[in-house]
Structures are given as C-alpha cells and as structure tokens.
Amino acid sequence: MKNLYRLGLAGLALALASGSAFAQEAESLDAKVNAMFKSFTEPFVTFIFAPLPGTEFPWIVLWLVVAATIFTFYFAFVQLRWFGHAVSLVKGDYSDPNDAGEVSHFQALTTALSGTVGLGNIAGVAVAIGIGGPGATFWMILAGLLGMASKFTECTLGVKYRNEYPDGTVSGGPMYYISKGFKERGLPGGRFLAILFSIFCILGALGGGNMFQANQAHAQISGIVGDYPGWITGVVFAVVVFSVIVGGVKSIAKVTEKIVPFMGLMYVGAALIIIGLNYDQIGWAFGQIFEGAFTGLGVAGGFVGALIQGFKRAAFSNEAGVGSAAIAHSAVKTKEPITEGFVSLLEPLIDTVVICTMTALVIIITNQLIADPETGLYVLNEAGTAISTVGDTSGVALTSAAFGSAISWFPYVLALAVVLFAFSTMISWSYYGLKAWTYLFGEGKIAEITFKVIFCIFIVIGAAASLGPVIDFSDAAIFAMAVVNITGLYFLMSIVRTELSSYSKRLASGEIKKFA
Amino acid sequence: MSTTLVVGLDGEGSGDRALAYSSGLSSLIGDAEILVVYVIEWSPFSFQTAEENAQRHKRREEEISMAMERVVAPAVAKLSANNLKASGIVKHGDVATTLNLVAVEHNAAQIIVSRNSEGGFAKRVFGSATSNLVMTASVPVTVVA
C-alpha cells in the first residue's frame, strides 16, 4: 500500500508539473483543446440538452420530471404517506442497538446530502430566479417534492442489490441493481446498461463532480483576493483531495465533515434571519411566487419560461433520478432495504424544498430583481434573456448581493461556503466515480489508485482552464446517467413495490419493532 | 442466583483500579460474575464520507477485535487467573448510555468504573463519561478513585 501511495504521489507530482506547464501555455493550448473537444462532444451535448420540438424545454428535464411523477403515483404518494416514518428512521427509533458502530440512516443521508448541497443551491437557484423570475420557485418546489419518489425508488434498489464483500466492505449503485435486477427478472441488456451507466458516471464525476467544482471554487477565491492563475487553486485542491482520498488523511475529512454541515446550517440560519427581519414581505414574496408561476410576471418565455427554469434547476440540484445518491446510500446497515428508500426521500426535501426555497426567498425579499412599479412586471435586461438585477448580477453574485444587502459581511462567509461545498462535492463524486470505475475494471488497489490519481489531475485542469465544452459535456454525462438509471428503474420498480407492501404489513403487525 | 457486576474499562491504567475493586467485591459476595465492558465512543449522528461509510462494517469489526485483544481479554484473563467468574464484551456507542444498557440487560447489581481525572475543555463543559453515568444510571454505580 505504501508503494502504491508513493506511486500515486509521483503520478500526482507529474500531473501537477504538467498542470503548471499547461497553465503557462494556456492561451494557445486552451483554445486548441476547447475546439477539439467541442467537435467530439457537441453532438452528444446537443442531444442531451435538446429542446422538445417547438419549445425551449430540454427533453432530459421532462424525462426526469415525468419519471418522478410516475414514481409518485406508482407508490401512491410515498413521500407524503411515509414522511413521518422516514424521520423516525433518521432519529434511530428503529435502529437495533446491537448494530451500534455500523453506518446509521442519519450518516447515509448526510453523506448523500454533502454530495448534492452545493453550488446548485446557491448559484443554480439564482440562475433560475434571474431568468424565470420568482415563479420558478414554485416549479422548483414541485419538482423537488416529486423527486422524492425517484430517490426513494433508486435508493431502495441500491441497498437491495449492493455487493457485500467478504472483508466487510460494500459497493452499490445503479450499475449493481440494473445488472443484478435485470438478471433476476430474466430481462436482457442489464449488463450493457450497467456498463453504460458506469461510463457516464465516471465522466460526470470527472466533470460536474470535479472540474466544474474546482473552476467555481477558483472563481470565488479570485473574486475575493484578486485574479491569479487558476492552476494554483487546482494544485492546492488536488493536494488536499489527494491527501484525503488516497493518503487517508482523516483529519482533513473530519474537519470538512464538521464544517460543511455547519456552513449549511449557517446558510439556512442567515436566510431565516433575513426572511424574519422582513417578515412583513413574506406574504408578498409568496404572492410573487404563485403569480409568477402561472403568469411569468413578464419574464422571458412567460410562465413556461418560469416552469422550465424551476424544473431544470431542481433537477440539477437534487440529482433525483440521476442514480448518484443510490451509490452513497448503499453503505447503510439495515436488514430492510426499503428503510433507506424512506430516508433518502428526505434528501430532495432538504436540498430543494428547504434550502433552494430559502435562497429564492432571500433574493425576492431583498428586492434584487428590478420590477416596473406601474405594471408590477419584471424588467428584462438589454438582451431580453433575463431579469435586470440591482448591480447587474447573476448566479452566485446575485445570491451574494442578496445576502450582502442585509448582512454586509455575509458574502465572505458565502464564498467560504462555496469553496467548502465544492470540496465536499468533489470528495463525494470521487467516490461515485470510483465505484463506477471499479465496476468496470474490478475491485483492487491498483484500479482504485489509478482512478484517484486521474481524478486529482482533472482538478488541476478544471481550475486552470475555462473549458466550457468540457463542462457542458460533463453536465450532459451526469444527465445521461439519468437516462440509463431511470430506464432501469422503470423495469425494476415493481420489486420496490413488493418490498413496500411487505414492509408495510410487517410494520402494521408489529413484526418490525421500534427500539427507541 | 449469581450477582453480576459490570466493570467499565477505558483502556487506560485507571481501569486496573476498577478491576481490582471488582475482584475484591466479587470475592466478598462469593457467587458473582464480573462482566468486563469496553465501550468504543461512537455516535450515529456523526458525519462521514461515502468511502468511510463503505468501509464502516470492516472498521467496526477491526475496532471490536482490537479492543477485545488489547483491553478486554487481558482483563478477563487476569480475573480468571484469580479463580473469578469473568467474561467480556466490546460495544460501540455513548459510554454512559451503553454501560447502563448493558447493566440493565444483564440484570447487574452495580456498575464499577474508575475516575479518570485527566480531562480537557470538552469534559469540563459536557462532563466526563463517569459523571454522566453517575447522573443517568438505572443501577448503583461505584466510582473507584
């Protein structure tokens, strides 16, 4: 293992050196890489984000929302009926004290949340509100509520079909439930879909789960300390991530584990304070959300524009149906796979319905969006693509300005939160990518360290260059995961219903008992 | 009916004092069994990475086996060598809560722990495992100085 670690360090050093060289020649090389990469990947990106004929609605967003709606009806509104039970499970009411020391439902939930709570909640919502107006919030909340059923389905299957190895470690996720579930049901193509999912998962992990995060973290840091070469941020991040995922430097992971939830709570707390200070405007803000949801209030594309933005950003933020959460939730200790499904349905609720809505309310209440006082409609920018904002901000800057207008020093905390969220998202996605990698190439130290070194190299590249086409491709890869995953879920959802029915009966009969 | 004495060890030298006291008490009682318990401090509400979660079961087994080998087994061997009836277990959880649960489960007459005077800021604020045990236990607790 020590030799592997040294080998990894040598590989990383080489990568960093090449990262540095890459940065020096960034001007010319960047353009070449962009052009070459774009020509290869554009057809795929265009296909994934293609709008439905005659609309601007990307079919992939409809794919996710339709699936969430089908799962909601198929499981008879599981997110409402089993919500209370999900909370009891997270509290540990049904956990056997003899299993103490194993992964709890709470731990599986927070681990999965650390992979989803991040830029989507801060920047993504601002983009949705900036383009789609306050009405986008309504559709975002609706998509979040529906997405709870998708998470329930995929995470139940994730635990049911995970691999448990003789040494006690586990591996789970869509690649396992698709291949094993299809085989069990005598369906063809399971292995093919699992391989396809794994390939998309690796690409998504290297892109959206890595390069995009490094890039945005650098943008935040340079926004505060002034512009400097991105590769420096990349190298620092790569070394820290490498220390955690390869070197097993637990202290860094431990500090992050403590700080990230604290930052999340601080973010929600600050939002609540701002909302509380403007309590007289809460009614008005919700009025804007409902009115905008069905009229658009002057935004580009009207209410359809608001709907597209809301659905799109919710899907981007909570990853329901993408399959990534099923990998994270698979490690829980439980005899009942369905219990992890119940717990996982809280994820879109916390991520989208609570945190994203907080961001939206702060932006609306602090009057960052410019409206015409006579008509009450929002004023569009010169290009007519988004709402004019105070200070002409968008994305993270819009959220930052909204919080900063009420708490002057909060933008600095927000910048730190973005960097930490980016780091925790990277750690989570390094694991998702690793599981897909080991599914393709087999479990083993060599296979693991190869992926981890590649992952760290991509951090440097992501922070150093503004590789737009690469980012587009990585986002497309994450959503391509949803195409494969949801296809698998449609064929396997009857298994989840059988589990649900069995569990429901045993809970009612008292066979499944409460320990607390 | 045999009397059960639960002895909580913390893996430090101070545990020897609790063991010595329980040996003496057991001899006085006569028909007594000493249950040596080592609790690995653990909370189901801590935060972990996905990779740590995946390896958690394996780590738990390793932790139990290491604690059994280094702390519990030598203590049980020492008691047995003195012709005392003894057994040992390793558990994960909050020390005070778990010791109390084990005592209740085994219908123990009392819990014996040693006082560990070494403590940092956290212990001053939140109290040590021993003081928490004294305040919350359902059975008598003897704290050996």
Task: Write structural notes for this entry.
The complex is a heterodimer of chains A (516) and B (145). In chain A, 75% of the residues lie in helices and 1% in strands. Chain A has helices at residues 2-24, 26-48, 59-74, 78-81, 83-91, 105-116, 119-132, 135-160, 174-184, 190-225, 230-245, 250-277, 282-295, 302-318, 324-329, 337-344, 346-365, 396-406, 410-441, 445-464, 468-509; strands spanning 163-164, 170-171. Chain A starts with a helix and ends in a 7-residue tail after the last helix. The model of chain A is unreliable at 1-5 (pLDDT under 50). Chain B is of the alpha/beta class and 145 residues long. Chain B is built from five helices and five strands, in the order E-H-E-H-E-H-E-H-H-E. Chain B has helices spanning 15-29, 50-81, 95-105, 121-126, 129-136; strands at residues 3-9, 32-41, 85-93, 110-114, 141-144. In chain B, strand 2, helix 2 and strand 3 form a beta-alpha-beta unit. Chain B starts with a strand and ends with a strand. The interface between A and B is medium-sized, with 40 and 26 residues.
Number of strands of chain B: 5
How many helices of chain A does DSSP assign? 21
Total separate domains of chain B: 1
Adjacency order of strands in the biggest sheet of chain B: 3-2-1-4-5
The domain tally of chain A reads 1
Determine the most extensive contact between two protein chains.
Answer: A-B, 40 and 26 residues
